[in-house]
Amino acid sequence: MSNQNCRICNNPLNVTFVDLGSTPLANSYLSADQLQRMEPIYPLRTFVCEECFLVQVEDFETPKHIFGEYAYFSGFSDSWLEHCRKYVHMAIQRLQLHKDSRVIEIASNDGYLLQFFQQEHIPVIGIEPAANVAEAAEKKGISTVVDFFGTALAQKFIDDGIKADLLLGNNVLAHVPQLNDFVAGMKIILSDDGVITMEFPHLMKLMQGCQFDTIYHEHFSYLSFTTVVALFEKHGLKVFDVEQISTHGGSLRIFALHSQSNRFEQSANVERLLSEEEAFGINQISTYHNFSEEVKKLRRGLVSFLIDLKDSGKTIVGYGAPAKGNTLLNYCGLDQDFVDYTVDRSPHKQGLYLPGSRIPIYSPDRIMETKPDYLLILPWNIKEEIIEQTNFIREWGGQWVVPIPEVTVTK
Q: Is 32 exposed, middle or buried (0-12, 13-18, 19+ CB in 10 A)?
């Protein structure tokens, strides 16, 4: 039983989804001088609401503490940037955006996406709570408001005469503790015939692929399409279309507008996916009970596999320093006894250490220097991109290990 109530309907949370033990915050990377200090750790338990079926973690830290200074910069994945470029092209065509339109992105990070709208001379505003990340966007010439989004900030925009013709957010909905205030704010800031698009990891895919590592304290909620449709309806917004996309192990992109707007008719995709989730059992508590056992089985398999490699004298290094990797490593009890180091393309992470496991983070150049036998891909959702970038490890017989949804080895 949780000490808090459901984020959407305020019901008591009595049903555990999965308990991943106690871990540090997944993005709380350590500097060398912090290695001699204790790290704050928090229980990482998820619960499912018996009424709205929102899967959610308990709150232990405020968003201000988690996101006030953030280590994640979106602009360092080539595949993600290409995904955003294609989205912008689609949005301009489908929504007929032009130089008099207004695009507002919530959690705009370093301007990774808005830069493509700006290149098409479409006015943009970013909203980003992490000041250090927002600074990177401002250097690209992207106007960015440093704040958390909700009804209060939405009203400030309205008071200044600003509304969104396209309001978008990629992988932000899961990061919001006050979901009702957040969606109510979107209703306020949206122009009369404006459109909202939101992308978020799909809870059904998380369960089907045993993607437990996508659970961490910064992800307050884990969302099904069924739950999101009901949440938006509660606040006077209707979802008129949905796309299933491959990002982050399987995500959804929803399209919504004011309930009273007739600009777009509802796509058949909406009822199709609602029916698919119903057949999966998304509205049945029994569906959620088996997930925990699948996670334990995956942990045992991965640890056993890595023990066998180390016992045979093999060297293992990581690729990437994503939040999901920290959940995986800490839940499985993997540290430098197993993984010598990890590498990351982001200079903002190089020279730091992973929280909990304290594995050092280097530039990818180090792989050529040490020639490891195995590369453990932590951001498995972009494994094809990583394998292509590190194809050179084949020169010495190096192989790649992908841990999710089960341990697989690629030569």
A: exposed
pTM for this entry: 0.90
Does 234 share its domain with 378? no
Q: What CATH code is carried by the domain that includes residue 185?
A: 3.40.50.150
- Helix, strand and coil content of the chain, in percent to the nearest 5, comes to 40, 25, 40
Q: Are 166 and 105 in contact (CB under 8 A)?
A: no
SS (H, E, C) 228-259: HHHHHHHCCEEEEEEEEECHHHCEEEEEEEEC
Single-letter amino acid, residue 9: C
Domain hosting 157: range is 74-278
Overall domain count for the chain? 2
Please give the Cα distance from 26 to 34 (Å, whole number): 16
Q: Are 360 and 261 contained in the same domain?
A: no
Q: What is the DSSP letter of 179?
A: H
In a domain, 31, yes or no: no
Q: Note the pLDDT tens digit of each residue in 377-390.
A: 999 999 999 999 99
Give the DSSP per-residue string, 309-361: HHHTT--EEEE---HHHHHHHHHHT--TTT---EE-S-TTTTT-B-TTT--BE
In the listed set 245, 278, 311, which residue is the last one of a domain according to the structure?
278
Could you tell me the maximum CA-CA distance found in the chain, to the nearest angstrom?
66
Sign of the alpha-carbon torsion through 321, 379, 24, 338? negative
DSSP 265: P
Q: Is residue 263 assigned to a domain?
A: yes
**Residue 243 is encoded by which pair of tokens?**
């796309």
277-311 pLDDT, tens per residue? 999 999 999 999 989 999 999 999 999 999 999 99
Q: Find, among 88, 143, 98, the residue nearest to 122 by Cα.
A: 98
Mean pLDDT of the chain: 94
Q: Are 148 and 129 in contact (CB under 8 A)?
A: yes
Q: Same domain, yes or no, for 375 and 397? A: yes
Distance in Å from the first CA to the final CA of the chain: 45
Number of neighbouring beta carbons within 10 Å of residue 234: 15
pLDDT tens digit string along 21-61?
A: 999 999 899 999 999 999 999 999 999 999 999 999 987 76
